[in-house]
Amino acid sequence: MRTITLYRSAHYSRSILPLLVLIAVALSFGSAMAQEAPVSNPYNPPQETKHIQLEEIWRIDEDSEGPVLGLPTRVVWDQEGRIYVLDAQLDQVNLYSPDGQFLESRYRTGDGPGEIRNPVDLILFSDGSTGVLQEFPGKIVRLDNQGNPLPTVLVGGSQEKSGSALLMSGRAVSGQLYLAGGSRQKNENGEASMREFVSRFNLSGEEMRCHMEVQKPRRSHGSQLEEKDMINSSMLAWDVSPSGRVAVAIDWEKYLFLLTEPGGENTRLVAREYKPLRRSKEEIQLMESMTGGGQIKFAEYAPSIAIFQRGLQFRGDDELLVLSSRGKRDLPDGVLARYDVFDGEGHFKRWLEVECEGDPMNDRLVFLPGDRVIRIRRF
To answer: Which are the contacts of 240, defined by CB distance < 8 A and separation ≥ 6?
Structure first.
């Protein structure tokens, strides 16, 4: 049974000895950016590990009032402390009070105003309106703060007036809309390729600034799908700080991310010494069994930044949490996750261990403003 639990966090520190066990594409940045010198970081951080103990405040499960959770994939919160949960299985957004009481469900399955199919992400705008991303054709279905339909945002032009881009994830910060996705392109010779991007858009679906893009040649017909080609790190592992600083993971095996200053004027490449984690034979066999076996060629190594857990999260403007491939494995008893903590300039400062019940490999933590943390069980 999937559950969502809200916790209050308490910090404390203790000294520990760091252990190693703990811890053909074209890439380009926005053309207007001045690229700053790369920031290189060692494997071990200079400061001692901090620890957070989570104290449960409330949880949503099969015994809670309101709808049973299908597949909760995204949690956001507004200035009043209300929690919005996107249920990708049931095509709806459930709204809860700050004390966990169910308030209402918004959206429903369909193609009309306020209706969605196969949603991939949820955006909360500063005016209290919401937007649900539909993967393809790429569009954002919007409702105002009372649940009434607003004009849909079409991304990538007209695909029968529903947008032609593929969308994977989005954020809204300070009135700005940030999206990650892809679009098909052809060069002057008619050769097809896929352009994958993390960019800022307006509410008309027009791209205003590109923070990162990748050009990939089109996969030949009949070739086997490869995991690394299907899901680029930047599609899922990225975040925007309250002031507009953007962090984007850019490699599968290398521990690399881009860090862009608010406004997008300067971008630096941030790296950390890191040995990729080889997946076990059993892990690959499990993934093959879940996808029908043989249809996808799974990567030998796990992504060094945990893209499937959306492994980049800002806490305020000056602290970035990065979940590595080892941040969910071989942890001490009682620790659910270990994060690498970077400052706003891209310097690796410390590890942060979160002590909480749960399954490290399947549960996801979402950090809310202040001292609140959401755990999505079986994410």
So the answer is: 171, 173, 176, 178, 246, 247, 314
pLDDT at residue 335, as a whole number: 97
Q: Please tell me the distance from the alpha carbon of residue 132 to that of residue 141, in angstroms, as a whole number.
A: 5
What is the 3 state secondary structure string of 59-100? Answer: EECCCCCCCCCCCEEEEEECCCCCEEEEECCCCEEEEECCCC
H helices present in 178-232, as ranges: 227-230
Assess contact for 91 and 141: CB atoms under 8 A.
no
250: which 2 tokens? 């850019």
Give the position of tokens 């590595």.
324
What are the mean pLDDT values of the chain's consecutive 10-residue runs (379 residues total)?
83 36 35 64 97 93 85 91 94 94 96 93 94 92 96 72 75 92 76 85 90 78 77 90 94 95 83 96 87 82 93 93 95 96 96 95 88 88
- For β-strands 246-249 and 256-260, DSSP reports them as antiparallel
Classify burial at 207, counting beta carbons within 10 Å of its beta carbon; exposed 0-12, middle 13-18, buried 19 or more: middle
Distance separating the N- and C-terminal Cα atoms of the chain: 11
289: left (phi over 0), alpha (psi -120 to 50) or beta: alpha
- The residues, any chain, with a CB within 8 Å of residue 136's CB and separated by 6 or more, are 165, 166, 167
d(CA 168, CA 215): 17
Amino acid at residue number 202: N
Chain centroid to CA 13: how far? 28
Structure tokens at 281: 């034979």
Q: What are residue 228's phi and psi, to 5 degrees?
A: -65, -30
Whose tokens are 């029908």? That residue is: 292
152 DSSP assignment: P
Tokens of 3: 């559950």
pTM score > 0.90 for this model? no
Question: Strand 266-272 relative to strand 39-41: parallel, antiparallel, unpaired?
Answer: parallel
Q: Give phi and psi for 308, each to the nearest 5.
A: -75, -15
- In sequence order, the β-bridge partners of residue 367 are 373
